[in-house]
Structures are given as structure tokens and as C-alpha cells.
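name: query_chain
kind: protein
chains: 1
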Amino acid sequence: MEMHLQPLATTCFVSGEPFVAGARVASFLVRDGATLGIVRYDVAAEHAATFAPEGFVACKWVQVFKPRQAGENPERALKLTAENLFVALADPTTEPTEENTRLVQFLALMLERKRILRPRGRSSDGLRLRYEHAKTRQIFEVPGGELTPEFFVAVQEQLSVLVGGSNPKPEHQGPGTRD
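structure:
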């Protein structure tokens, strides 16, 4: 899975205020209803709870803002792969949500199969699976969970948004409509 995105913005989408080094920034990946493309919104963490973008929110994570260094290659940051999406969402500083947890669990399975992540057993409380990132040796803990058909339907909807598959099904279908 690979896609290209806008780089981390330097200003808050909501307030227009510039981000300062060390500021917490919430990034949203949203399928734009008009163009059906993926749009990235970067919002100061204090505005994230009230931010409601139009379109389907595929995932959200919070990161610390670091200004780009002179000579840094911004094109490299534009490519979003399954691996760096996993690293961003599984980062301990990212607040877990039901959607992110589901996506992290799926990405961990996929990256384990590709040998990018190596299983390292369970956490001491037995509730999380531990994975070692092959390149960096960093340990990530992923919530354990049951992989039900409902889990895969929900994660399929998120992934279809991220990789440009079919549109998510509407919440309610009126009379005379078909699946």
C-alpha cells in the first residue's frame, strides 16, 4: 500500500496560526466528498476535538511538530506507506481511537507477513501484542483483539479510502435503493 500526500502543514487548518517547534498537531486523512481524493488536514491539538471535516475520516494521529531542516527532501515525506502509517499510528504518543486501533491491528498483521515487523510475544498484562520493527529495532505494542468478520468489514472501509477503492457504503439507504 503506497500513496502520496501533502507534507505536514506549517499552519493550523482551523486557526491559521503557524505551528511552533514542539507543538502537538493532529493529522486527519479524509476522503474529500467532491473529488474523492485523500486530503490531509493538520490541526493544532487544542482544535482537534471540535474539528469536523467533510468526508469520511480514514484515520487520525497526533504528532509533535518539527520544522523542516534546510536541505531536507520534502518529497520523501510525501509518500505514505503501510509501514510509516503504522509507525505514526502505533507511536505511544498517538491517542488511540477505535478506528486507529483497528487500522494498527490490520497493518501489524500485514507488516508481519512482509517481515517488516517481528512478533515478540505479549505484553506483561497479556492484553497487547509486541512487535519489533526490523529496521529500527523499536518495539511497538498493539492491542490484541478478535479478528471477526465485522473487524475486516470495518478495516476494509478505511483501507478503501486510503488506497482509492470503492466509496464507503452510506449509513442509511432509503426505500427503493439496492446494495
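note: Residues 91 and 140 are 7 Å apart (CA to CA).
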